[in-house]
Amino acid sequence: MSTPIEVTTTVKVAVPKVAAAKAPAAPKDEITLIANKWKKKRGSLIMALHDLQGRLGFVPRESAMKLGRAMDVPLARIYEVVTFYNYFKTEAPGKYIISVCTGTACHIKGSKDLLAGLEKELKIHEGESTLDKEYHLQGVRCLGCCGLAPLASVNGKVYGKLNTMDACYVIERIQQDRPMVAAQEEEAVAE
Ligand code: FES
């Protein structure tokens, strides 16, 4: 089984060190990254909001405000779009939002199996939340860390190089409230 590693979208890779060295320098501000990516493209606002929700699971007001400033779009216009399309959520659909990347690189590396494993583990389908609203599971497009495929993010933290077996591992770490990096360090000490 490959070793799961945790990075944030600011690309803080704990292990292995080789991956850290290869990881691209991450922008400090994710909103700026999204704004720069979509600002000059056609239909940019919808795509930027799609990107934002893909990373966070919903569109928090604070993020919408920051995005509006970064893209020079009034907040009212952003809410026009967000409230028009049912797809967009303005409230967190679960305490833990698990996003499995279904982009090409992750798909080739088995993200379908990973998603299926999480669906089985949580007893929900993609796009649903558990009854207690503890977990929300969703498939998302490329999160921009293809070198770590297949990957999933939990509330914005990316768990890379996962496989089908890691579905349980991710849930276990969330339930124990143990960050992936700390858990790995403990295991390394125990070896
Ligand atoms: S395809 Fe999954 S991060 Fe790019």
What does this protein structure show overall?
This protein is α+β, with helices and mostly antiparallel strands. It has two domains: 5-25 and 92-190, Glutaredoxin (3-Layer(aba) Sandwich); 30-84, no CATH class. 46% of the residues lie in helices and 12% in strands. The chain has nine helices and five strands. A five-stranded mixed β-sheet has the order 1-5-4-2-3, with helices on both faces. The longest helix has 13 residues, at 44-56. The radius of gyration is 17 Å and the shape is globular. Mean pLDDT is 79; it is low at 7-28. The protein binds FE2/S2 (inorganic) cluster (FES). FE2/S2 (inorganic) cluster (FES) binds at residues 101, 103-106, 142-146, 149, 151.
Write the layout of secondary structure elements.
Layout: E1 5-8, H1 17-22, H2 30-38, H3 44-56, H4 61-71, H5 75-84, E2 96-101, H6 104-108, H7 111-122, E3 135-140, E4 152-154, E5 157-160, H8 166-175, H9 180-190
Helix pairs in contact: 2-3, 2-4, 3-4, 7-8
The chain binds FE2/S2 (inorganic) cluster (FES).
FE2/S2 (inorganic) cluster is lined by residues 101, 103-106, 142-146, 149, 151.
Structurally, how many domains make up the residues?
2
The kinds of small molecule bound in this structure are: FE2/S2 (inorganic) cluster
Give the biggest beta sheet: 5 strands, mixed
* Unreliable runs: 7-28
Report the principal-axis shape. globular
* CATH topological fold name of the largest domain: Glutaredoxin
Order of helices and strands: EHHHHHEHHEEEHH
